[in-house]
Amino acid sequence: MGLIKMTKYRTLLLATIGFNFSFLIWFSFAPFTGGMAEEFGLTTAEIGILASSAIWMAPFGRILTGWLSDKFGAPAIFAIVLAYVGVFSIASAFAQDYSVFFVTRLIVATAGITFVIGIQHVAEWFEEENLGLAEGIYAGVGNAGAAGGALILPRVFGEGWSGPLFSTNWRAAFFYTGIVSIFLAIAYYALGEAAKSDEKREATKQNASLKGWIYTATRYGTVVLAAAYIMSFGLELSMNGWLATYYREAFNQNNLVIASTFAATFSIAAGLLRPFGGYISDVLARKEKNILPFFEGQYRGQWTFLGLCFIVVMMFVMTLAGLSGVLLNAVVVGFLVGAGCAWAEGAIFAQVPAMFPNSSGAVAGVVGGVGTVGGIVYPLFYSAPWLANLHLGYSVAALTMIPIVVLSAWVFRPEIATVANTAGFTGISESESTATADD
């Protein structure tokens, strides 16, 4: 029992605040790449590697913490992550050697694994018919923390920063965000409750076995949603870490605040519009509305598929906007790419807990973890030295997304979709997967 009686709405608020700050501290490096590059002597390609490295620990970390949330409850796991992230963020502020700095920021970047912890926490409190909206609010407002970082941090810790501990703005930003992270860890542990009832908590805990995890991780539904998350959330991660650099380098926009503000328009769209994706998925499921007849009866899947198609189209348009040479065109299309990410992400995580109600943490971990691979790979396309210019990387990324759209079209067919949570890529049976939690 926490310090106050928790309700589903208080739980949603607590999880959203925790994840919003996690996203802010995760991408707190993005507005300061210019200063860090100057101090450590980094090239544009090396900045791209730094942006990519922010995602390296997320796949395994999300898979692990999703399962741990099912096993031990979200509040304890969320608090542990926020605490050590805060400690290493503070350490990165004092790093003088680039190798030490790189490693500490790599650990700070694991703040992104809190996503699946909160997804599991919210799913333990909300009913199936409202899961899309609740998870959309949680993830959408939480993801907007990246925009908060781009908008707030450069203004609070400006280029002329001169504080009591640091004369370098990005070092001060890393130090003080680390302090806040530690305080949030204490608050989450003190206030959070794992589930709305003891019965719900026990049902989830009993499914947190190794065999149960293998079973859910290899179902068709889990695999296709994980792949779809690569090209939606993975794309969002990559753009959050890259766009400020892109607007600065590709359009010779040297003003840190302006470039970061332009980049924040993407993060705002990708974050705050995410509840829209989840809400429409809920509405289509409740009203049993077919919007794509060839996926008849798969109401949530239809909405997800449309979102994925929209992303691919907008990524090609992003290249065209950049090649036009008009910065405003790229900013507007970037906003639309963010809107497409929000649409697809909200739709995907409306499906996850609805499809696997007693294993939401494990499945969210797989989907969220695999999805971050896009955040690792796509920045390497954007800054690839073999491209003629910085605009072409978006089209290269779009081409790699087409096979995922094709896979989605196959799984979302009625004959496959109706068994997507039980049929999968391994021969393990459902009865074998329901082993006790001690296995």
From TrEMBL:
Database matches in InterPro entries: MFS, MFS_dom, MFS_trans_sf, NO3_transporter
The protein's name in its UniProt record: MFS transporter
Source organism phylogeny: Archaea, Methanobacteriati, Methanobacteriota, Stenosarchaea group, Halobacteria
Bilayer topology annotation: Multi-pass membrane protein
Listed PROSITE patterns: MFS
Source organism superkingdom: Archaea
GO biological process, one term: nitrate assimilation
GO cellular component, one term: membrane
Span of domain Major facilitator superfamily (MFS) profile: 11-415
Gene Ontology MF annotations: nitrate transmembrane transporter activity
Family: Belongs to the major facilitator superfamily. Nitrate/nitrite porter (TC 2.A.1.8) family.
Keywords carried by this UniProt record: Membrane, Nitrate assimilation, Transmembrane, Transmembrane helix
Positions of transmembrane segments: 12-34, 72-94, 100-119, 173-191, 212-235, 255-280, 301-321, 327-350, 362-381, 393-412
Places the protein is found: Membrane
